[in-house]
């Protein structure tokens, strides 16, 4: 059974980018160099072409990922290959999680695409995780990732039934760290809030679920799909903590319209090439900073700092300022690492060019 590509997000702009002779499809899963692709003719399993692999070796971000639109080529033996990855509207990119790389730089200076062409990023955080309530700093970090991608973030507090009367206070705290973002509380036990989350979807809109293992992302996926499309496990009664079940990213089509990408729990969320993601998460601090005496105030010990005054008065929690400082330092550090990697790559390319020029000169008659 084939798919209506328009319901998957296909449009004239994408059609204009499709190389001649290729068939369009949307990547629903990637596994060891092969991709599951949704096409007008149905599910197709395709390997990466040599050109795509070469491009990925030079820049891992260019490799096919879940949510991508791809151009497929049918081979003489009936198999298919991903011959092209079409330009992305949005992309959730975190710093790489490897430990080594060429030239002595760790792979965190390279990026890893978690999902592409998504309209919404549902940041899923459990109301209770182990013995603690929701991790506000993790929410801030995931919101920075979401804003930077170009998607619209939405915070979803799962397992809301575990907090009882304390839920209202938690929701106030979460709303304070997510300015300009919709925040919903949901419960897989009672069904509370699922309709509010579903209301964000529809048509060909695509959402991705981001959050730690055991947050209930797969349970939410099943609730939105209206059937069990992802395997889930029971939470522990002692602390309400779920167990890790999802091991891959997968694009799911929803019967009521829209698509959703379920993801494994994210343990490490390194910031990658941040331009304004952190600023959008901390728009409250940016607003206060406009009243600082000095335009380049670092909000550390400068006189006339409106941000420090807000902390002293209790208007701004110190935890919020500390989190802003940490993410700003990380974003700046990653920018310097990326610049160093690009300089090394440029130097390497020029060495290859000069070597080839010398070799060609020696071979002249």
UniProtKB/TrEMBL annotation:
Q: Which Gene3D superfamilies match?
A: P-loop containing nucleotide triphosphate hydrolases, Probable gtpase engc, domain 3
Q: Which CDD domains match?
A: YjeQ_EngC
Q: What is its EC number?
A: 3.6.1.-
Instruction: Identify this protein by name.
Output: Small ribosomal subunit biogenesis GTPase RsgA
What Gene Ontology terms describe where this protein resides (cellular component)? cytoplasm
Q: What does this protein do?
A: One of several proteins that assist in the late maturation steps of the functional core of the 30S ribosomal subunit. Helps release RbfA from mature subunits. May play a role in the assembly of ribosomal proteins into the subunit. Circularly permuted GTPase that catalyzes slow GTP hydrolysis, GTPase activity is stimulated by the 30S ribosomal subunit.
Q: Which cofactor does it need?
A: Zn(2+)
Question: Which UniProt keywords are given for this protein, alphabetically ordered?
Answer: Cytoplasm, GTP-binding, Hydrolase, Metal-binding, Nucleotide-binding, Ribosome biogenesis, RNA-binding, rRNA-binding, Zinc
* Single biological process term from Gene Ontology: ribosomal small subunit biogenesis
Indicate the segments forming the CP-type G domain, all copies.
Answer: 108-269
- Residues binding Zn(2+) are 292, 297, 299, 305
* Note on how the cofactor is bound: Binds 1 zinc ion per subunit.
Q: What is the lineage of its organism?
A: Bacteria, Bacillati, Actinomycetota, Actinomycetes, Streptosporangiales
Subcellular localization, per the record? Answer: Cytoplasm
Picking any one GO molecular function of the record gives: rRNA binding
Q: Fetch the InterPro entries from UniProt.
A: G_CP_dom, P-loop_NTPase, Ribosome_biogen_GTPase_RsgA, RsgA_GTPase_dom
Main location group: cytoplasm
State the species of origin: Bailinhaonella thermotolerans
